[in-house]
């Protein structure tokens, strides 16, 4: 998938969610947190981890590969549990998990609006 196609897909998804009540800001916030999880995973893999000697700060049960293994309702539930767990972690993990965990109600409402 090229960059243009990816950007178009993200905006299309944003428009669908906006139509059911999710704001642009909420959508961007959610993408930011997902990208944070993805980047933690990327930084823990070669070739980057050889340069930085840095393991992912995200516990394996809540890391990007665990999210990718889910789909549909299982993905939503796992995402919610991930954010609740990260919000209880010390340090910067709480910065990822706690605010997004509180924002899940907006996602839940938007997803229900799509049904």
Unreliable spans: none
- Major sheet description: none
How much beta, percentage-wise?
Answer: under 5%
First-residue to last-residue Cα separation:
28 Å
**Strand tally:** 0
Class of secondary structure makeup: mainly alpha
Write down the overall mean pLDDT: 75
| Oligomeric form | single chain
Q: Treating each run of at least 4 consecutive H or I residues as one helix, how many helices?
A: 6
Principal-axes shape call:
globular
Radius of gyration: 15 Å
In helices, the fraction of residues equals over 70%
Could you give the order of the helices and strands? HHHHHH
Question: What's the helix and strand layout?
Answer:
Elements: H1 3-19, H2 24-43, H3 48-52, H4 64-68, H5 72-87, H6 92-114
Helix pairs in contact: 2-6, 5-6
Tell me about this structure.
By secondary structure, the chain is an all-alpha fold. It is 75% helix and 0% strand. The chain has helices spanning 3-19, 24-43, 48-52, 64-68, 72-87, 92-114. Helix 2 (24-43) crosses helix 6 and helix 5 (72-87) packs antiparallel against helix 6 (92-114). The radius of gyration is 15 Å and the shape is globular.
